Protein backbone atom coordinates (compact mmCIF):
# COMPACT_ATOMS: atom_id res chain seq x y z
CA UNK A 1 0.00 0.00 0.00
CA UNK A 2 1.35 3.41 -1.01
CA UNK A 3 1.97 5.69 1.95
CA UNK A 4 1.88 8.75 -0.29
CA UNK A 5 -1.00 7.63 -2.50
CA UNK A 6 -3.48 6.82 0.27
CA UNK A 7 -3.52 10.40 1.59
CA UNK A 8 -6.15 12.62 -0.08
CA UNK A 9 -5.16 15.97 -1.61
CA UNK A 10 -6.85 18.96 0.04
CA UNK A 11 -8.08 21.54 -2.48
CA UNK A 12 -7.77 25.01 -0.89
CA UNK A 13 -10.32 27.75 -1.46
CA UNK A 14 -9.60 29.78 -4.57
CA UNK A 15 -8.50 26.70 -6.55
CA UNK A 16 -10.88 25.26 -9.11
CA UNK A 17 -10.16 21.60 -9.90
CA UNK A 18 -11.69 19.76 -12.85
CA UNK A 19 -11.32 16.04 -13.57
CA UNK A 20 -12.14 14.86 -17.10
CA UNK A 21 -11.40 11.14 -17.36
CA UNK A 22 -7.74 10.95 -16.35
CA UNK A 23 -6.93 14.60 -17.11
CA UNK A 24 -6.78 16.82 -14.02
CA UNK A 25 -6.93 20.60 -14.54
CA UNK A 26 -6.33 23.13 -11.79
CA UNK A 27 -7.02 26.85 -12.00
CA UNK A 28 -5.97 29.29 -9.30
CA UNK A 29 -4.86 32.85 -8.69
CA UNK A 30 -1.40 32.24 -10.23
CA UNK A 31 -2.50 30.45 -13.40
CA UNK A 32 -3.71 27.19 -14.87
CA UNK A 33 -2.05 23.76 -15.07
CA UNK A 34 -3.16 20.33 -16.21
CA UNK A 35 -1.84 16.79 -15.89
CA UNK A 36 -2.80 13.61 -17.77
CA UNK A 37 -2.61 10.54 -15.54
CA UNK A 38 -2.17 7.01 -16.85
CA UNK A 39 -5.07 4.55 -17.08
CA UNK A 40 -3.59 2.64 -14.13
CA UNK A 41 -5.08 5.05 -11.56
CA UNK A 42 -8.57 6.38 -10.82
CA UNK A 43 -8.85 10.01 -9.69
CA UNK A 44 -12.00 11.23 -7.94
CA UNK A 45 -13.01 14.58 -6.41
CA UNK A 46 -15.49 14.77 -3.54
CA UNK A 47 -16.06 17.50 -0.92
CA UNK A 48 -12.87 19.42 -1.69
CA UNK A 49 -10.61 16.37 -1.54
CA UNK A 50 -8.99 14.51 -4.42
CA UNK A 51 -8.52 10.78 -3.93
CA UNK A 52 -6.24 8.65 -6.10
CA UNK A 53 -6.68 4.87 -6.17
CA UNK A 54 -5.01 2.16 -8.27
CA UNK A 55 -7.24 0.82 -11.06
CA UNK A 56 -6.08 -2.78 -10.56
CA UNK A 57 -3.56 -4.76 -8.52
CA UNK A 58 -0.69 -4.69 -11.04
CA UNK A 59 2.79 -3.54 -10.08
CA UNK A 60 2.58 -0.59 -12.52
CA UNK A 61 -0.73 0.58 -11.03
CA UNK A 62 0.74 0.53 -7.53
CA UNK A 63 3.83 2.38 -8.80
CA UNK A 64 1.78 5.09 -10.50
CA UNK A 65 -0.54 5.52 -7.49
CA UNK A 66 1.81 7.65 -5.39
CA UNK A 67 3.20 9.39 -8.47
CA UNK A 68 -0.23 10.52 -9.65
CA UNK A 69 -1.13 11.73 -6.15
CA UNK A 70 2.10 13.77 -5.96
CA UNK A 71 1.48 15.29 -9.40
CA UNK A 72 -2.04 16.36 -8.36
CA UNK A 73 -0.64 17.86 -5.14
CA UNK A 74 1.99 19.75 -7.16
CA UNK A 75 -0.74 21.15 -9.46
CA UNK A 76 -2.81 22.40 -6.54
CA UNK A 77 0.16 23.92 -4.71
CA UNK A 78 1.53 25.45 -7.92
CA UNK A 79 -1.61 27.36 -8.88
CA UNK A 80 -2.29 28.51 -5.30
CA UNK A 81 1.20 29.32 -3.91
CA UNK A 82 3.81 28.67 -6.63
CA UNK A 83 7.33 27.32 -6.27
CA UNK A 84 10.68 29.04 -5.73
CA UNK A 85 14.25 27.75 -5.89
CA UNK A 86 16.98 29.99 -4.50
CA UNK A 87 20.52 29.82 -5.87
CA UNK A 88 23.69 31.35 -4.43
CA UNK A 89 26.76 32.32 -6.42
CA UNK A 90 30.15 32.10 -4.65
CA UNK A 91 33.44 33.22 -6.15
CA UNK A 92 35.46 36.35 -6.84
CA UNK A 93 33.88 38.25 -9.73
CA UNK A 94 30.99 35.79 -10.05
CA UNK A 95 27.65 37.57 -10.41
CA UNK A 96 24.25 37.47 -12.07
CA UNK A 97 21.88 40.11 -13.43
CA UNK A 98 18.54 40.02 -15.23
CA UNK A 99 18.55 42.05 -18.45
CA UNK A 100 15.11 42.04 -20.06
CA UNK A 101 14.21 38.43 -20.86
CA UNK A 102 17.77 37.12 -20.32
CA UNK A 103 19.78 36.13 -17.27
CA UNK A 104 23.37 37.33 -17.60
CA UNK A 105 25.81 35.17 -15.60
CA UNK A 106 29.47 36.04 -15.08
CA UNK A 107 31.03 32.82 -13.84
CA UNK A 108 34.74 33.16 -14.46
CA UNK A 109 34.66 32.19 -18.12
CA UNK A 110 36.14 34.38 -20.86
CA UNK A 111 32.55 35.25 -21.86
CA UNK A 112 29.26 35.97 -20.13
CA UNK A 113 26.76 33.12 -20.03
CA UNK A 114 23.43 34.38 -21.41
CA UNK A 115 20.47 32.26 -20.30
CA UNK A 116 17.11 33.02 -22.00
CA UNK A 117 14.36 32.96 -19.38
CA UNK A 118 11.67 30.45 -20.45
CA UNK A 119 7.98 31.29 -20.56
CA UNK A 120 6.17 30.75 -17.26
CA UNK A 121 9.33 31.28 -15.17
CA UNK A 122 10.34 34.45 -13.30
CA UNK A 123 13.93 35.06 -12.26
CA UNK A 124 14.89 37.75 -9.75
CA UNK A 125 18.35 38.87 -8.68
CA UNK A 126 17.99 40.88 -5.46
CA UNK A 127 21.76 40.78 -4.95
CA UNK A 128 24.38 40.06 -7.64
CA UNK A 129 25.15 36.77 -5.86
CA UNK A 130 21.55 35.57 -5.29
CA UNK A 131 19.18 34.23 -7.95
CA UNK A 132 15.54 33.30 -7.23
CA UNK A 133 13.78 31.10 -9.82
CA UNK A 134 10.00 30.96 -9.39
CA UNK A 135 6.93 29.74 -11.25
CA UNK A 136 3.82 27.57 -10.95
CA UNK A 137 5.19 24.36 -12.50
CA UNK A 138 7.40 22.52 -9.99
CA UNK A 139 9.19 20.47 -12.66
CA UNK A 140 9.97 23.52 -14.81
CA UNK A 141 11.26 25.57 -11.85
CA UNK A 142 13.54 22.73 -10.75
CA UNK A 143 14.79 22.14 -14.30
CA UNK A 144 15.66 25.81 -14.88
CA UNK A 145 17.45 26.00 -11.52
CA UNK A 146 19.40 22.82 -12.36
CA UNK A 147 20.44 24.20 -15.78
CA UNK A 148 21.66 27.46 -14.19
CA UNK A 149 23.56 25.49 -11.52
CA UNK A 150 25.04 23.29 -14.27
CA UNK A 151 26.88 26.23 -15.87
CA UNK A 152 29.33 26.24 -12.93
CA UNK A 153 28.60 23.60 -10.25
CA UNK A 154 30.24 24.20 -6.86
CA UNK A 155 33.71 22.77 -6.51
CA UNK A 156 34.78 21.01 -3.28
CA UNK A 157 38.02 22.86 -2.50
CA UNK A 158 36.97 26.52 -2.23
CA UNK A 159 33.21 26.14 -2.73
CA UNK A 160 33.19 28.41 -5.79
CA UNK A 161 30.30 28.11 -8.22
CA UNK A 162 26.51 28.17 -8.32
CA UNK A 163 24.74 26.20 -5.58
CA UNK A 164 21.25 25.86 -4.16
CA UNK A 165 20.70 28.05 -1.09
CA UNK A 166 20.01 25.03 1.14
CA UNK A 167 22.77 22.84 -0.37
CA UNK A 168 25.73 21.84 1.78
CA UNK A 169 29.04 21.53 -0.05
CA UNK A 170 31.33 18.87 1.39
CA UNK A 171 34.73 20.50 1.44
CA UNK A 172 37.96 18.65 0.73
CA UNK A 173 41.31 19.35 2.22
CA UNK A 174 43.89 20.76 -0.18
CA UNK A 175 47.24 19.12 -0.83
CA UNK A 176 49.86 19.28 1.91
CA UNK A 177 53.47 20.31 1.67
Automatic annotation (TrEMBL):
Part of the 50S ribosomal subunit. NCBIfam families: L6_bact (TIGR03654). The lineage of its organism: Bacteria, Pseudomonadati, Pseudomonadota, Alphaproteobacteria, Rhodospirillales. Residues 11-82, 91-164 form the Large ribosomal subunit protein uL6 alpha-beta domain. Gene3D superfamilies: Ribosomal protein L6, alpha-beta domain. GO terms for biological process: cytoplasmic translation. This protein binds to the 23S rRNA, and is important in its secondary structure. It is located near the subunit interface in the base of the L7/L12 stalk, and near the tRNA binding site of the peptidyltransferase center. InterPro entries: Ribosomal_uL6-like, Ribosomal_uL6-like_a/b-dom_sf, Ribosomal_uL6_a/b-dom, Ribosomal_uL6_bac-type, Ribosomal_uL6_CS. Belongs to the universal ribosomal protein uL6 family. GO terms for cellular component: cytosolic large ribosomal subunit. This is Large ribosomal subunit protein uL6. GO terms for molecular function: rRNA binding; structural constituent of ribosome. PROSITE patterns: RIBOSOMAL_L6_1. Pfam families: Ribosomal_L6. Keywords: Ribonucleoprotein, Ribosomal protein, RNA-binding, rRNA-binding. SUPFAM superfamilies: Ribosomal protein L6 (SSF56053).
Amino acid sequence: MSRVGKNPVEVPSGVELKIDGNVVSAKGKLGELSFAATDDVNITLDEGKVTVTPANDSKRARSMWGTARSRVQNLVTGVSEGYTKNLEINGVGYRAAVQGNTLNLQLGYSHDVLFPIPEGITIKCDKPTAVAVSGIDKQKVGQVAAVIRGYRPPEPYKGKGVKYADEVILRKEGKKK
